[in-house]
Structures are given as structure tokens and as C-alpha cells.
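Give me C-alpha cells for this 299-residue protein.
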Amino acid sequence: MEILVTGGAGFLGSHLVDALIARGDQVIVFDDLSRGSSDQIADGTTFVEGDVRSIQDWERIFKAHSPKVIHHLAAVNGTRRFHKEADLVVDVNINGTRNALQLAKKHGCRMIFYSSPESFGEQESMPLSNDSESLFPPAHIHQRHSYGASKHIGELLCQFEVRNGLDVRIARLCNAYGPRLHGDDNGQVVSMMMAADPIVVHGDGSQTRCLTWVGDVIDGLLTLTDMDGLEGEAFNLGSTDEITMLELANLISKVRGVGIIHGDANHGDSKRRLPDVSMNEKISWKATTNLSDGLAQLR
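Here you go.
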């Protein structure tokens, strides 16, 4: 089967592409290489460099290929960018998604949209489920939620097209980690702690996350690729094992033999994040890799 993966040169996208290629699919990677790397694209993949905001770039792909499935991962990510580059975050995430939906509708593709627990904003009632409300603070306070709001709007656009007959399913990835994850200032927490010396804990470190091994996530994404009857369904692909960021820092500092310091809290950082995973029974999926085993594979 021919499959298009936007953002396929990045962390999660490249792991997905590897898995698709390994099982015999024909894969087109659509990426602007702003964060991804061509070195991470598997042999046998067709690579198209372009911008998901450009409808011309999308149409260029569909003139040469006929994918049956679109995995739309491409987005501006990295917590520190959400406040500093809010205009770019909104532009890429919303307009890229609109184009993906337009081409999926035009060519009759199944589409998997990649959302995030950030789409719930600062919702404090846990666990986060498909019926949880999205709560965002006044925009003048900070722009951290440019990302979460863009993902919320992306889900709105997807559900609108589902009402009009398009086969879209939504994957909310819950703090996926693993090899190839960026450890720089715009990276994510596990990779940043694995790279920093000393490890920086934002705020008091009491905020919790449920960290999910990338291999487990990929298994769920392959099911979303293949399984019929999931139109309009949203799945929280995540572990339910909560850990505070200070506990995580202590665990990684012992492994690496480095110290820990405390830095400023990130704008709008959720105090707790626990996904409701009951919907995953429909796809027979759950996270099975514990954190210790996952971290051991990153040394």
C-alpha cells in the first residue's frame, strides 16, 4: 500500500516510516527538514522536500503518487517554541492540517491526524478523555497554548470532515520518547534530560507526565492505519504510569552521573497529565514498555 507521511524525517515520523517499509508498504515522506533529517529516512522511501502550508507542494506529490493513507504528523513542536514562535506554530499546524484534509478529501484517502494531550489546555480533571473539555487561559498571559489550541482546532476540522464522509482517525500521542528524539533547547523532556549536564528541572518538578515508549506507539499507529470502522474516533496512545519530572530527573541523573538544578517553570505547564486509555480497547492496544526498560535503550 502507498502511504504518505508528513513530517516523516522527524523523531516519530521516521520510526513510523521504518515500520511501514519493514512490512512492505510504499512510503512517501513529505518534510521541510526544519527539524527532521534526511539521514533518518529509510532506504526505499520516496522523499519530497516541501512545506505542508503550500498546496502546490501537496499537489506535486499527488501528481506523481496515489497514496491511500495520509499520516499527518508535520507540526511545529517543542515546548519553548509555543510561546516564542506562536505565529509560526499556528500557521504551520492549522494550515498544514487544512491542506492535508483537502487532499485527503479530493483523493479519497484515509487520514490519521496527530493531536496531543496539549489540545486539552490546562484541564485539571484527570484522566483526559474524549469527553474532557479543553480549557485555555486568556491569550494575553502567554502564548504557550498556541500549540494546544492549534491541535484542538485540528481536531475540530477533522471531525467536520468526518461529518462530510471523510475517514479520519485521531491519535493523541502522550509524551512519546525514544531514539532520535531531539535533546536541544527545543526538545522534549526525556531527551533533554538525557543530554543536559546538569539536568534542568523546570519549577519544583512536581508536574507529572505519562511517558510512552516509541515502539509501543508505533504498534498502535499501524493498527490505526489498517483497521476499518474507526472514522471519527480519537485514541490516547499513552502509558498510564505517572512520574513527576523531579523523579524522572533523579532517575536519569543516577544513570548518567550528573547533577540536577531547578530552572524557571515553563509558561502554562500542566500540573498533571494522565490519559484515559479506555478507548484503546477498540484497537486492542496498550503501552507495555516500562520506563526503566525504555531509558535503558537510550544509554
